[in-house]
Amino acid sequence: xxxxxxxxxxxxxxxxxxxxxxxxxxxxxxxxxxxxxxxxxxxxxxxxxxxxxxxxxxxxxxxxxxxxxxxxxxxxxxxxxxxxxxxxxxxxxxxxxxxxxxxxxxxxxxxxxx
Length: 114
Prior knowledge:
Elements: H1 10-19, E1 35-39, E2 46-52, E3 55-63, E4 70-73, H2 89-97
Antiparallel strand pairs: 1-2, 2-3, 3-4
């Protein structure tokens, strides 16, 4: 027989709510903004990989050739393209360490090298 949730002991109600609440990755603000510049494994294009809210995100860096200009492209479904063009990858990183243009969900903080 089903009992209304309100009639169950508080500890049982809390456990039921916990089991029925979708779990998100732990939010670790310490790691938000860690980033890596790398080449795509599918195409010969640079990619910006970064941590935000416990997940790793990958944004393509659009460029006509290896010398630039460079623009950041968010992944589908948004596929937003930065209105700003950068002469170098260092310039792109410096910009997104600051305010940015709304494409990045967080500022870049610390670069990771492999």
